[in-house]
Amino acid sequence: MKFLPIIFSVGVLAAETLVRGQQRPAVNPILNALTSHGCYKSKASLKDPGGYEGEKVSSGLCGDVICNKTNSTVLGLRGTTCYCGFEYPPKEDLVEDKFCNYACQGYPFEACGSVDGVYYSIFNTGVKVDVDSAEPVASTSSKGASSPTSDASTGDEGNKEGDKKSTNVGGIVGGVVVGVVIAAAAIGGVFFYLRRKRNKEIEEEHRRNAAVNSFIGHKPPSSSGGLSITDARLDPVMQRRMSDGSIADNHDYSRKILRVTNA
C-alpha cells in the first residue's frame, strides 16, 4: 500500500506537465514511432493530401491515418490542416518551440503549429529514420532556379546595356557620317575654287592673245591719191611686170620712169 502515494504523486506530476497547445521538444527519430522534430517557419515541400474534412486534427490522426496512405516520412501540422511529404523543412527555418502554440482540436495538449503566424509543428512518422532536410530557398535560386524578380531585374539590366551599346554605336556612326559629309564638302569647295581660278586665268590669257593679234594684224590707212606707200620692189608681181628695157630708179620709185620705145 505504501506504493500508492508514489504512483499518485507521479500521476499528478504528469498531469501538471500537460499544457494546452504546447509544442513537443524535438527528439531523435525512432523507427515505427511518431516523434517531434521541432517548430519551423516553413513547410517546404510538404503538401495537404485532403480527405479528412470534419475530422479533429492531431498528430495521431495525420500520422497514423492521413500521411500513412502515401507512406510519407514527414508530417506537418498547422491549425486544422495536415501536411505530408518526404523531407524536413530547411534547417535554417527551425525556430523556438514557443512559436508553435495552437492547441490541436483532436488532442489539445499538443501544438498544431500556430495560426497567429506561419509556423508548423513537424514530426517524423517513423517510416524512415534518416530523412533529409530541404535546401534553403536562397541556395536553390543560386543553383539556377532564380526567382522571377531576379530574372526580371537581370533582363532590365541587359536591355539597358543593349540600349546603351546601341546608343553608343549610333552616335559613332552618326559622327563618322557627319565627318565624311563635311570632308566631302570641303574638298568640293576647294575643287570648284581652283577650277574657277583656272577658268579666269584662261580667259585672261585669251584676252591678252586677242589684243596682241589685233595689234599685229592692223593695216595703215591709204594715201589721199590712192597710191600705196609700200615699196614696189617688195612686191614680186610688180617686179615681173616691169620691162627689161625700162629705166628704173633703183632708189626712188616715187619719180616717173623714162621708157624707150620704137618710133
TrEMBL record:
Its main location: membrane. Residues 1-21 form the signal peptide. Pfam families: WSC. GO terms for cellular component: cell periphery; membrane. Residues 138-153 have a biased composition (Low complexity). It is found in: Membrane. Residues 157-166 have a biased composition (Basic and acidic residues). It is a single-pass membrane protein. Residues 137-166 are annotated as: Disordered. Keywords: Membrane, Signal, Transmembrane, Transmembrane helix. The keyword Signal applies. The chain crosses the membrane at residues 169-194. It comes from the Eukaryota. Residues 33-126 form the WSC domain. The keyword tRNA-binding does not apply. This is WSC domain-containing protein. The lineage of its organism: Eukaryota, Fungi, Dikarya, Ascomycota, Pezizomycotina.
